[in-house]
Amino acid sequence: MSAHPTFEQMWAELAPIGRSATTGGYFRQPYTAAELECRAWFTEQAVRRGLRTEVDGNGTLLAWWQPEGAAGPAVLTGSHLDSVVDGGAYDGPLGVVSAFAALDRLVADGLAPARPLVVAAFPEEEGSRFGVACLGSRLATGVLSGDDAARLQDADGTSLLDAMASAGVAPDLGPAAWLSEIGVYVELHIEQGRDLVHRDAAVGLGSGIWPHGRYRFDFTGEANHAGTTHMEDRRDPMLTYAMTALAANKQARLSGNRATFGRVAVEPNGTNAVPSRVSAWLDARAEDETALSTLVTGLSRQATERAERDRTGLQITAESVSGAVAFDEGLTSRLATHEGREPWPVIPTAAGHDAGILSTAGIPTAMLFVRNPTGISHSPAEHASTQDCLAGVDALIEVLERLLTAPADGSP
Amino acid sequence: MSAHPTFEQMWAELAPIGRSATTGGYFRQPYTAAELECRAWFTEQAVRRGLRTEVDGNGTLLAWWQPEGAAGPAVLTGSHLDSVVDGGAYDGPLGVVSAFAALDRLVADGLAPARPLVVAAFPEEEGSRFGVACLGSRLATGVLSGDDAARLQDADGTSLLDAMASAGVAPDLGPAAWLSEIGVYVELHIEQGRDLVHRDAAVGLGSGIWPHGRYRFDFTGEANHAGTTHMEDRRDPMLTYAMTALAANKQARLSGNRATFGRVAVEPNGTNAVPSRVSAWLDARAEDETALSTLVTGLSRQATERAERDRTGLQITAESVSGAVAFDEGLTSRLATHEGREPWPVIPTAAGHDAGILSTAGIPTAMLFVRNPTGISHSPAEHASTQDCLAGVDALIEVLERLLTAPADGSP
């Protein structure tokens, strides 16, 4: 038996941090007080287990388990601790808490790992503060340059560098040296959909991630008095935006893909003023890259035509675009089956993950999903049963044991 | 010659206060630092002219000129000093600065007024901080109760009472005692439209104000992951809002009225989250009350039908509704003509003013408008030429002289 807190105890420790009493949702934007409390919790868990801790120059938290005899490329597991604005409890923390719980069981079972195990928490996975999702893994892999990241600001104009420094994290943005020591990555995550419900399984593996992108649409017009300005004399960017939001939904519906305008900023945002500017962010995802390109190109053309009709301006900026990800197929199919249990289903996802970034960068990667009864995510209503969470921990224990005792070529 | 600053000097004193270096627009929301500086400027102008100053419990600034021999119902003039968010320089301050300039000329000309003159600056005319336009005059006249106003909060949750108290204004919200001493009100204002341009006149009088209202539309849905949630499974309030914004524009265009959605608040407002709530404010104005009611009722029906289709919720709250205003017809027609000049044109307006509230409350009221070459208002681009502003001051001097020397029944 481990003397360390159980999964349920760790879960209870994290539960109140950054939770809104009004909505029940989580506000754990990177380097805010709540997220710093989560980071301190991570370090405390690592230290009490005697793990070697490390914070890289991108703000990624790492905890190394390397008992005598463990050498060569390490097995990386974990997820993230930050949340979307008013998000759920499971998206991110489930993978981190499960990692510590799985490690405790491996130690208690007396496992002698052939390779080191690293537990990680990547910063700003959601992109909810600085606008770039998977910020930590993009920097670690060089997908995003340190110079580009140094220019990032939050909505209040605070730079990423200042936010890190004031949180006591010495920023040194760019490719991470530790990545060269990683042989394989496994991320456990709550499912953001209902595929596992339909397949009647508590746990599944990910086949890959749909390509997706975030595009900022800046619609510009002319501020004017909402009462006295004739409708015909207006250049009202709200109208161009409204048509674009409806068109995005329709196009995604008809093509079986996803398009969402969930974030809007209006200037001057006064009841009695025609707006001078409406900025809106498109989140678009599709089953393959051709479909994504067709969706975004078609919508851009419709919006541009409407802007001409409204005599408004439109500028479209791709803030982040991620290609399709296929997780390591050999690894995933080997992990899917194991003696003594049913094979785990292998399902795709339309959500981005640090696992996708690492996979694209050439790290053999697999994802474990835990069943989500409603499929709801990025919302206070996000939920998984404790029983299914513990089934996820068991699955992670099995996977880590196989990987930690596998030969150095990584095949479990 | 007056020893007091000229119109142009006073204008130059106010010009930098609350002006954004980025947009050139004004941010003079009530009880913010910029607006408090404007209020201090008002008091300084009054004190240097030896006027008796008064701040009522609603935050209205008053400056009384009552030389010996002046008695009975007073002549009130003025306007407001607060602005919309990122507004123009003229909307409000033009009437206040013109009032002091006109008073200086009357004193310099040796006028012996039969009645007192009061210069006023009403607070929160724009409703840009606490959401109720013409807040000062609504309270003074009892149109809005002190209890209701005490519940008002700004977007940050600061109550009107706290904002006033922290600005050093002792709140005592409710009907104003001084109003019983007022016999007539004249408000000078920049025109918010181009009627005077078309009539080739620097100055005109107002016939009345279109009825108008502000309505909050709260669209509610279900927050969810923007990537993983099937389009068919969503309850996305952004779509219901977008359709409503387009419908509002179309209805107003077809009926020759005005409808604007210029203010929007989205929750959680994250790029990768389907919103749980979109609140949007409709500003609607029409030529008469039947037309306004038809417009708002029709739009509410369309929005409700769409909400059913989108499986979203919709609650519509009328935040403030003002009936049609007809300014005092006899007074206006008498003021329109005077020997030695062309008659002033008499024009309607779709903009709300404290003059409308006082007129509806039974105070004989007239409005003077100053030409606006572009018609643009509630925008940094709002402008009137200095020559036209000085023509406005001359017009106000003429009107005040006629009113201050008229018999007590008020007919100039």
Automatic annotation (TrEMBL), chains A, B:
Keywords, alphabetical: Hydrolase
This protein's record includes keyword Aminoacyl-tRNA synthetase: no
Family statement: Belongs to the peptidase M20 family.
Gene3D superfamilies with a match to the protein in the record: 3.30.70.360, Zn peptidases
Pfam families: Peptidase_M20
Domain of life of the organism encoding this protein: Bacteria
GO MF terms, alphabetically ordered: N-carbamoyl-L-amino-acid hydrolase activity
Protein name (record): N-carbamoyl-L-amino-acid hydrolase
Ribosomal protein among keywords: no
Coiled-coil ranges (or none): none
Enzyme class of the recorded protein, top EC level: hydrolase
